[in-house]
């Protein structure tokens, strides 16, 4: 049961199937069930994962309500919700944290066993609160944020300071925080060490910021877009490599910049399959560590096995190893205190009605983050 029983009709971005265009249509959003909250979205944002989502990531279920980044205000709560109330400003997330399961208490992973990452496009009870013309809508992950209203299980929502900049809050809901966490929580960058970051989108700039936060002495940003040099420096990058300036490989260029040794850590943020081996090769033999956060378009990618056999470590990551309550809350606090130059990420704004244009804007060389404004 819910304290409000009204079904809300609102606008949302929808994809009806593989290869189908994104449309903005009226949908119905049911009231929250007992352990859920309905959120009136303030703004959302777009990242590369949103492109892969209309290509069938992480499931093939359609029609789909799109979006996974954003911030909003709790509009109504289920009758078993005690930690949130109407009016709270929240970030919907796609990962939970129970703080008591084997994984949560291990200190080794953020992948909660009680509240796992949703790869089904549904809420934890295998249903959806969103529908269009009587047909169930799936989410990308645990919620859909390119909608004027969305419903999340309370375990997948983080309350934030109401004075936080909504645009910046949207940025940290996934992209920037994923990169920051990769440096902070996944490889645990050591003070005085060297780090290479492949791909300087919002995730890569977050990784640079995380490496700086951890005290890295040399932070090498790698991107073929020269415009990213200035952005990287704003977040703490010390060296920039544009691979198009040389016939040498990325790993060779990184080794040149590190006296032939390679870096202590590399963070792969592009999802481009050949760069997986390159990011490993760019690290020191025997001790180098690479964390992968970029999502490739293909389910399998080639990997240079000799590179691994020479003592390097490759680690996958979801949400940069961040726990929602323990870690994302710290990033949100830093965000609210303006400790990150997140204004550097904002390059474009579009209203929800024009969200289709965002996919074209994303191809522009000066595009970093696109904010989607709700019209209500």
TrEMBL record:
Residue ranges of the Enoyl reductase (ER) domain? 17-372
Q: Which residues form a coiled coil?
A: none
GO annotation (BP), single: formaldehyde catabolic process
Q: Which GO terms describe its molecular function?
A: S-(hydroxymethyl)glutathione dehydrogenase [NAD(P)+] activity; zinc ion binding
PROSITE patterns referenced in this protein's UniProt entry, alphabetically: ADH_ZINC
Highest rank taxon of the organism: Eukaryota
Q: Which cofactors must be present for this protein to function? A: Zn(2+)
Keywords for this protein: Metal-binding, NAD, Oxidoreductase, Zinc
> What would be one Gene Ontology cellular-component term for the protein?
cytosol
Q: Which family does it belong to?
A: Belongs to the zinc-containing alcohol dehydrogenase family. Class-IV subfamily.
**What is the annotated quaternary arrangement, including any partners?**
Homodimer.
Protein name per Swiss-Prot or TrEMBL: Enoyl reductase (ER) domain-containing protein
In the UniProt record, what gene is named as encoding this protein? Vigan.06G253600
């Amino acid at each position: 049961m819910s304290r409000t029983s009204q079904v809300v009709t609102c606008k949302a971005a929808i994809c009806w199937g593989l290869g189908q265009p994104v449309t903005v249509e009226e949908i119905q959003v049911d009231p929250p069930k007992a352990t859920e909250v309905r959120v009136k979205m303030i703004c959302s944002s777009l990242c590369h994962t949103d492109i892969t989502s209309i290509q069938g990531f992480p499931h093939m279920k359609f029609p789909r309500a799109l979006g996974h980044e954003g911030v909003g205000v709790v509009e109504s709560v289920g009758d078993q919700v005690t930690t949130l109330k109407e009016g709270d400003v929240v970030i919907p997330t796609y990962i939970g944290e129970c703080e008591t399961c084997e994984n949560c208490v291990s200190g080794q992973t953020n992948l909660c066993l009680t509240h796992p990452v949703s790869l089904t496009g549904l809420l934890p009870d295998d249903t959806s609160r969103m529908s269009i013309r009587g047909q169930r809508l799936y989410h990308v992950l645990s919620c859909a944020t390119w909608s004027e209203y969305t419903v999340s299980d309370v375990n997948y929502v983080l309350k934030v300071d109401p004075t936080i900049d909504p645009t910046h809050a949207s940025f940290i809901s996934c992209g920037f925080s994923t990169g920051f966490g990769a440096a902070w929580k996944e490889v645990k960058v050591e003070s005085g060490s060297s780090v290479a970051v492949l791909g300087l989108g919002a995730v890569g700039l977050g990784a640079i910021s995380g490496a700086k936060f951890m005290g890295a002495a040399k932070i090498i940003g790698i991107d073929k877009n020269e415009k990213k040099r200035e952005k990287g420096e704003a977040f703490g990058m010390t060296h920039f490599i544009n691979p198009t300036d040389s016939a040498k490989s990325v790993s060779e260029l990184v080794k040149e910049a590190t006296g032939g040794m390679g870096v202590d850590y590399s963070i792969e943020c592009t999802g481009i399959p050949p760069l997986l081996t390159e990011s490993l090769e760019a690290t020191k033999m025997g001790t180098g560590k690479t964390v992968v956060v970029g999502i490739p378009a293909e389910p399998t990618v080639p990997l240079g096995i000799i590179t691994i056999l020479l003592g390097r470590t490759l680690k996958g990551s979801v949400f940069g190893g961040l726990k929602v309550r323990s870690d994302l809350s710290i990033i949100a606090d830093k965000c609210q205190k303006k400790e990150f130059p997140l204004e550097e990420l904002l390059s474009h704004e579009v209203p929800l009605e024009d969200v289709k244009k965002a996919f074209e804007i994303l191809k522009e060389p000066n595009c970093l983050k696109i904010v989607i404004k709700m019209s209500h």
